[in-house]
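Input set for joint prediction.
Command: fold jointly, output tokens.
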Amino acid sequence: MAGLNDEAQWIVMMGFVVSFSFFFLAMVLNQSTVVGQTTAEGVLEFPKNDIRDVRSVIIQSVPLSDQAVLQTDIETIALSRKGAVVNYTQPTLTDEHWHISIHYNNGVTAYNETWTSS
Amino acid sequence: MVNDDGQLYTIEGVAAGMIMLFTVYIVLGATSVYTPGDTHISDMQLEQVGTDALRMMNTQVNGSAGTSPLQDIINNSGVSGFNGPEFNTTFLNYVNNKTGSETDNLHYNATVTYYDIFNTTTGSLPLASNRNLTGGEHPVRVTEWVIVDKKFPGTNVMQNRAVLVEVLLWRD
Amino acid sequence: MTDDGNLSIDFLAGFTIFMVAFIYVATLIPGLFIGLQSRTIDYDAVAYRTGVILVEDPGMPYNPSWETLNDYNKGDILRFGLALTKDTPNILSIAKINRFFCSTAFVYPDDYHSRAVFGDYPYQFNISFQMAGDNYTRSIGDVLPEGYGYSRRVVKIKETSNATIGPGTGSWHSDYEQQVNASVHLFSVYFNYTKLSGDGPDLNNPAYQINPLNPLGEGVVINFTDLDKTTNYLNDSSIYPGLPTNITLTQISMYRSVSLAPLHTVHSPFAGPILDPHDASQYNLYVDGSSIRTTTLPVNITGNMSLFIPPGLLSNVGNDDSSTWLKVTMQFNLTDGQGNPREDWFLNSTQSQPYGAFEYNYNPANVTQPTLQDGVVEVAVW
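tokens >
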């Protein structure tokens, strides 16, 4: 390699520098657009409204009759239409308060609560 | 006068140029242009408005009402079927209402899902819609649980049942 | 002459090819920025977050609530929130809405940015609110530009409860029309704090509660209509033609009873008046449809009267004691128009059963319950 002329190496070097900086810039810019997408997908994925809704319907069912039918309704429809396993214990009365133990799991998020009436 | 001593410069120049052009070609092909639809932000906004509207419909108007407007619509005064026109007016009112004088223009298709005790499956009945689904829309699904005292297919007694109101909501 | 500064042609050729390629590549760089629209990246997410903070959260500090802090202490407010309580998302309190949109207390953008929008970047924003039935929109912030991040929430707002008393209304009892001639008549309104704060509808849901102990509640409104028709006016017009009975509201007194220690099973007798009975400035008293408050008593009344008792007053008088029973007694003097007392029939609750007063409670026949009114909140960020 001693006889090779390396005087013009700097031209190719400049070429490489430009290419790498271009590549880096593009990577940074590309990642920034993904931020908005993951925020929205994170919001859509977390079942905040589903959990609130199921919890509210279970609590509403406390003073009603036909508890067993309501329980089958809620658990079956939640599994087949919402893709979530919901199960809860029938309301029990201790110390003048009603207690229900609620479990919710949609495969990604799990929620457990022991609700007592005030 | 003319010899091949400086060929190196030309070759290096050509090589550098080709490297840069090749990189640019790859990079521009790799970065994606995100349309607003790709980011699912409009889906998130639609879903928020839809769940809000259904939840407000399922809230009693005052403490002495006993039932919410949505329960009354599904119950339909004990008659079989549902009060579709009432659902249509109320839901569209909630969902299209904005501050200022303009209103939005959303479309929906609503069904009620119940549990069929006799066949041990879930069944679904149509509730209301203001546009038929053609398949080209990009809807979001919003749901609301409702408890009603009504007779559903699969049983012949009136009892308290929990049903799921499902609404597909989209923007033109 | 030497050829030290000469550039060989090959060098020039190579360098030119490099420069041309470089310039072409440089012009392609703006194409990378096509996907970079601020609106789709961050603003919608911030608008969504602000919408959730305002509509689903009651704000911080929660107890005492942030809207009761005065302007001097606004630095103690950590976060705005319009919801009634943590358990009632999307149901807003009118007191919090009024305080939030008070432009004399809070300055755009700094006060709102650090308490509702958050983030290091100095966003510009606009938060608007409109109630169904109103034709005006309340908003704070700048005018909307072409592109912005957006979030819209559907809400309900809890309104005041009210009672209307007068002949011909649903809460009228024959007990209230004292068909006995007297020149001084008393009408009392009775608040049983234990029942009001504990026996609310729907498992004591704060959205439907009339809670007098809550300083940030909605207050109570008592309307009196057709008071002149509660006198024996047909008889008067034949005995005193052209001289109908004059009605003067002379006092509004508050009497309080609490349960007695140590067993708290017996109540003390009603004691009072607690506040100055001739000072009507602590209420909002509007007489005969006037839009100006009456602040001192006595005052002449032709037919109608509207008394608003602010929530702060009810909770102050209750002094955090849920066993409080409160009677607000109004004294009416009847005269003949020249200052001489005249004995006549009038609105009078002293003979009514069982309390000798009109009970302000959850009975919809007595009191129009607090209703939830529809509304929309929109947040735009750019």
